[in-house]
UniProtKB/TrEMBL annotation:
One of its GO terms (biological process) is regulation of DNA-templated transcription. This is Arc family DNA binding domain-containing protein. Residues 43-63 are annotated as: Disordered.
Amino acid sequence: MSEKKAYPLRINADVMTAVQRWADDELRSLNAQIEYVLRDALRKAGRLPKPGNTDSTPEEGES
């Protein structure tokens, strides 16, 4: 399992409410939903390393 880091997040109240509702619908915690959304966006943008790759940056030519 990868290391988790704490980060204080300032967020618009309306966005927070919408994400909390989404998390409730998906039976996730608010924190898990935020991480899910971020990971999905990073994956779609080609910014996450491929599974099994120990490098924390995408391969050359990916993006």
